[in-house]
Amino acid sequence: GQNIDQPTEMTATEGAIVQINCTYQTSGFNGLFWYQQHAGEAPTFLSYNVLDGLEEKGRFSSFLSRSKGYSYLLLKELQMKDSASYLCAVPFSGGYNKLIFGAGTRLAVHP
Amino acid sequence: EAGVAQSPRYKIIEKRQSVAFWCNPISGHATLYWYQQILGQGPKLLIQFQNNGVVDDSQLPKDRFSAERLKGVDSTLKIQPAKLEDSAVYLCASSLDFGQGRDGYTFGSGTRLTVV
């Protein structure tokens, strides 16, 4: 089966760095996605990792360790607009790659 | 390119009424997904189409929910009769072919359903 765990809520200060962790259990592995979702809006793509290591894209970086079933999203130089939910998602390889989501981590950035 | 279009944006109905949502995926995307997102939770897949065929509807409450994608393009999701617990955002997403790789999935803006 599939299981994805991430913290429910996090708070951070503007300008700081925050790391959002995600652990997953899956039979087969076809990559891991991170999405950002502002309140009342659709999820938007942030990153996709299929190999171990860190991928950096501007202020956002994503890390994957397949052996540990672990990923994190790193947000640097936090801005108020980064206040949102961050969703970790894994395609279920045994089911036509349907995307299975974690419950999401609500990040609140304070001045 | 145009994104995934959904309508209506918001809907309020009374319990036991029926409601329908519409989705038009990105042109050329063979796979279409309907997700239900209850407040404070991650999206949950209801049904997945490949062209006009259903490949996964294991979590669709079939006694009240139905969906179709007759011509392999746009899709409708219907709830009849609605229950209070159906209050959620219904997200439509599409992908080129089973969501392979980083270009996998594009989401629409969703329909926020409130059942009173």
Structural account:
The complex is a heterodimer of chains A (111) and B (116). Chain A is an all-beta fold and 111 residues long. In chain A, 0% of the residues lie in helices and 58% in strands. In chain A, the strands form two sheets. In chain A, strands 2, 4, 5, 9, 10 and 11 form a six-stranded mixed beta sheet that branches. A five-stranded antiparallel beta sheet of chain A has the order 1-3-8-7-6, with no helix packed on it. In chain A, strand 6 (53-57) and strand 7 (60-65) form a beta hairpin. Chain A starts with a strand and ends with a strand. Chain B has strands spanning 5-7, 10-13, 19-24, 31-37, 44-50, 53-56, 65-68, 75-79, 88-95, 106-107, 111-115. In chain B, the strands form two sheets. In chain B, strands 2, 4, 5, 6, 9, 10 and 11 form a seven-stranded mixed beta sheet that branches. The termini of chain B are far apart. The interface between A and B is medium-sized, with 25 and 28 residues.
